[in-house]
Amino acid sequence: MRNAVFLLEHDEKFQDVPLLKSWHAQLDVRKIKRGQSHVLPHRVLLEIYPNPSTVFSDVIVKPFLLLSDMARKTVSIYESRIPYKQVVLLDYDNGLTSLYFLPILETVYCLSTKSEISREKTVIYHPVFEESKLPTQSIFELGGLDSSFIVIRLDLAESLLRRGMRGIVLREVEIVGSDSAPVKEGCDN
User: Fold this and answer.
1) DSSP 137-157
2) Tell me: the pLDDT tens digits for 125-183?
3) pTM to 2 decimals?
4) Cα 73 vs. chain centroid, distance in angstroms?
5) CA angle, corner 142, sides to 149 and 9, nearest 5?
6) SS3 132
7) Cα torsion for 63, 69, 72, 76, to the nearest 10°?
């Protein structure tokens, strides 16, 4: 069996993370993909909702993945060829700012039919991946869904945690052999 993988998720203990404000007009999420990201600007300034207690966590997962410089450097140890865009987050009212990096990840379609997802394809209740479809990359975006889900390998997860990265939790993913039936949708958990 390959190295264990996890869904990278937001740590709910961090309540004061930056919340992006009106980002749709400045960043087309459909272009945060290999082969399409060249149309995105090299650097973008995104306003966040005012909060004097904002905690700039090392990893922001939603609405798209953003990494602090330390998190980017850690990911680069494992994946040196990932291209990045710079994203400056700014709270005008409180004079807070932080530089993040938006990785342009490979999209991988590895969901098993044993997975349980919402009808809208925005929530994964029970993630199950097909082992034969898992890539060698240590981080990738999960394909086939209408929301962004980031998957990381155990070795990268351990490196991030050892360096004290703030704002993340890992959700274990079940890995099974190949199957061919459609993924279960509309589960009410």
Assistant:
1) -SEEEEPSSSS--EEEEHHHH
2) 999 999 999 999 999 999 999 889 999 999 999 999 999 998 899 999 999 986 554 44
3) 0.88
4) 16
5) 25
6) helix
7) 170
